[in-house]
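User: Can you write out an input/output pair for a complex, sequences first and structure second?

Assistant: Here is one pair. Inputs:
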Amino acid sequence: MRHALAALWVICHREALRFLGQRARMLAALVRPLVWLFVFAAGFRAALGLSITPPYQTYITYETYIVPGLCGMILLFNGMQSSLSLVMDREMGTMRLLLTAPLPRWWLLSCKLIAGALISVLQAYAFLAICALYGITFSPLGYVAILPALFLTALMVGALGIALSSTIKQLENFAGVMNFVIFPMFFLSTALYPLWKMAEASALLETICRLNPFSYGVESIRFALYLTPNPLAWGVCIAASIAFMVLALWGYDPAKRMIGRKM
Amino acid sequence: MSRRMTGLNVENITHDWGAKRALEAVSFSVAPGQFCALLGPNGAGKSTLFGLLTRLFTPRTGRIDIAGHDVSRDPLGALSKTGVVFQQPTLDLDLSVWRNMLYFAGLHGITGRAARFAASEALDRLGMEERARERVRDLNGGHRRRLEIARALMHRPEVLLLDEPTVGLDAQTRSDLVAHVHGLAKDTGLAVLWATHLTDEIWPGDRLVVLHKGRVLEQGEVPVTGAALTAHFLKLTESEGV
């Protein structure tokens, strides 16, 4: 147990050092949602009318509506970037070092996942701090309540990233897959528009949004922010996290030829 | 072959990648304190064998024992007794030498004062202690390799596996490394498996395993060294066809 925790600590520490060393990545992770907030949301405020739907009990501005979605965006992009670093680690050889540590492979991959999720959550809080300075604030308890929701969503998208990384041979291919995963996952979710707005546009789009696990990640954050329980969102996030992690472990199973050839 | 309880034992390993057979019925052993050179041209199957020895993937048939632990049945026991230097560098270039050492220590469950002691001792053994605070990116190729060997020794393994560790190094650094690892085997009782395609890295008294096209062509004590060994090796592999 002590050994397993020691590994978790050094993997988190390494991830944090690497992240702090990459100022550009840190900045990009914050600038992306801020551009959406200041430019996109400001423009849309006039065009988009939002009715009162749970968890909201009063009219809100569009900027307020998309904050949970933009938190989800940070988690999604970071989770994928962290998994992308697994492909890079594999190309650079550092993955071999990790996988030859005398610990179960599922634990080593979980450590990597937890480390990436922690970094993502910290960034989401940094974003919320900037939002607060801009004037978009929530109840103090809301900021505490979203911690588990942020962490769970980060684990879910991170696990998906790890599962994808096991099927990808080169970094170049990863970028392509990201375009087919990140953008559809983000745009076809409740991050930018509520479901009823999607339904107005197209029933098919609404169905896709409903099937997208990322929607439930965003909703778990949104509801937690207003201290409203949302068991469905949590249930879907937990189930999706487990499913993606099982896929990731299968992908990195040493008995599979798939991963062997790439190592 | 009788099964020893220590060192490295490889028995009847066969592995293939799709239709291509990478290793066929490979068997050999390395006793504690022995330096065993795994000599083979590029594409002989050395890296596949290293992947199997370190359980990056598992063999279709056969058995590998490391310090008495069956790699398939007790992978964690085997890995805890194995030090590995892969052909491809596995260092974190943007972290310091010291941080790289502590990261590895943590992966092996060594923490706190014990980790600092083990890191310092291993760096000292390889003459790297004064470089502990330097960023790995700023080290030259020779020092990076020494760091990787120091790191591989930190958890006091019983078997040290090195996959072409001298690739890209100049002649002097190469010769120093070869001498150093020979000394390690002799002084500390490590069983060393050194994969190479360069015959001048093999010393008299070493054990030799010649691998070609996935099969062991010859094994035993080095029959000759230097140019004679090169000629012997070429004759062996040519008679098998390239």
